[in-house]
């Protein structure tokens, strides 16, 4: 079997699908390699195509009329042929058709004893020129136009692994863009005003939905307000009296002290009441030199004494008991009720750490205490009266002495 027959068999097997294209190329290359190797090792070159049976070689295609053959393809200008390529050129239907037509025109009339060789249009390797006297060489003759072989059918390749079925013919970025529609639908062909009409319909639907939700919220709010105000009509506003109860200490009506006497006392000692108990050695009248001297401590703090001196203090009277509890009574003679009220306010403001005791206070007579110390001051006919009690049972003693003192000299300033 010649290499041409092997190539035909390969073509038939490829067309029938019994071999793959890769196997076809490998086997074809092997056949062509063997054919090329056999031609290189032969003693004589084969007869050129187109040489008649009589031995006279026909002019080669491309040989000029002068008889000198043209340079063969692949032969350099120096005349030394290059090493032939064992692989055939790439197949082309146009080149194969042109080659077949050219060979048919150049072939002479067939001889009865000639061996017919059907050329392979797919791969026809170049043949060595044959000498006319070689009787054992095989002459290749194309005496009749052979039909072109059917093109080999492509084998049915199964789907490659790793490639899923194409589900969408959209753009590669179609999954990243919202609102894409299939080409099979008529909506994707909309252009111009149709697009805005569709968008307008969707916008109206969203607007209606938003208005509906807003209406429901407004209705719910109205119902809640009605329920709130309706339930508020029930007669249960009990917490309101609490502010009144808390404000009672500031709005408490203090009791009235005894009525003021029409005339002031005639003597300083008549301003204060007598208190039983051990008497202090300084008890008695007070004058300015003694108040500014060794008896300055009877009127504390010093700011009160300074205020009294600045507002016209003339004289006074001092009474104190040393027995527990201690009781101190002090009367300061001022030129007027206003001057006396100024000294009273300074005295009460200077009592740091003592709180107002409204249960013991009267109008114009404010009492301050700390639990074991009770003090007060008021003005009567230009006199400043100060009452102080401290120690055990100081509250009972202070209450009793204050009642007697108010009866002896009632206040004339009751603001």
Automatic annotation (TrEMBL):
The keyword Ribosomal protein does not apply. Signal peptide: none annotated. The keyword Transmembrane helix applies. Residues 42-84, 96-110, 155-165 have a biased composition (Low complexity). Residues 255-267 have a biased composition (Pro residues). Residues 125-143 have a biased composition (Polar residues). The chain crosses the membrane at residues 207-229. Residues 29-170, 235-284 are annotated as: Disordered. It comes from the Bacteria. This is DUF1707 domain-containing protein. It comes from Saccharopolyspora hordei.
């Amino acid at each position: 079997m010649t290499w041409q027959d092997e190539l035909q068999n390969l073509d038939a097997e490829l067309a029938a699908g019994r071999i793959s294209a890769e196997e076809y190329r490998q086997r074809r290359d092997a056949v062509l390699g063997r054919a090329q190797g056999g031609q290189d090792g032969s003693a004589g070159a084969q007869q050129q195509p187109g040489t008649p049976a009589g031995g006279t070689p026909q002019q080669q295609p491309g040989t000029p009329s002068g008889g000198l053959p043209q340079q063969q393809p692949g032969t350099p200008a120096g005349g030394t042929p290059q090493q032939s390529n064992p692989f055939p050129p790439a197949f082309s239907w146009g080149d194969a058709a042109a080659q077949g037509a050219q060979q048919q025109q150049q072939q002479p009339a067939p001889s009865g004893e000639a061996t017919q060789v059907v050329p392979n249009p797919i791969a026809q390797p170049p043949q060595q020129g044959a000498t006319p006297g070689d009787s054992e060489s095989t002459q290749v003759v194309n005496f009749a136009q052979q039909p072109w072989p059917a093109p080999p059918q492509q084998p049915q390749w199964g789907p490659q692994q790793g490639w899923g079925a194409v589900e969408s013919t959209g753009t590669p970025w179609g999954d990243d863009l919202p609102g894409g529609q299939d080409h099979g639908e008529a909506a994707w062909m909309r252009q111009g005003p149709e697009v805005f009409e569709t968008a307008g319909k969707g916008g109206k639907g969203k607007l209606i939905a938003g208005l509906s939700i807003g209406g429901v919220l407004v209705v719910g709010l109205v119902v809640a307000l009605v329920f709130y105000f309706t339930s508020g009509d029930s007669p249960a506003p009990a917490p309101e009296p609490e502010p009144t109860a808390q404000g009672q200490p500031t709005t408490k009506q203090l009791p009235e002290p005894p009525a003021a006497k029409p005339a002031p006392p005639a003597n300083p000692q008549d301003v204060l009441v007598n208190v039983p108990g051990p008497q202090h050695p300084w008890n008695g009248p007070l004058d300015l030199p003694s108040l500014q001297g060794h008896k300055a401590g009877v009127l504390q703090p010093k700011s009160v004494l300074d205020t009294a001196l600045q507002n016209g203090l003339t004289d006074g009277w001092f009474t104190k008991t040393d027995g527990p509890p201690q009781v101190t009574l002090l009367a300061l003679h001022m030129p007027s009720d206003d001057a006396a009220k100024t000294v009273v306010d300074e005295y009460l403001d200077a009592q740091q750490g003592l709180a107002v005791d409204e249960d013991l206070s009267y109008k114009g007579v404010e009492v301050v205490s700390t639990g074991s110390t009770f003090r007060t001051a008021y003005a009567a006919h230009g006199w400043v009266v100060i009452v102080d009690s401290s120690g055990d049972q100081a509250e009972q003693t202070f209450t009793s002495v204050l009642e007697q003192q108010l009866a002896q000299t009632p206040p004339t300033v009751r603001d």
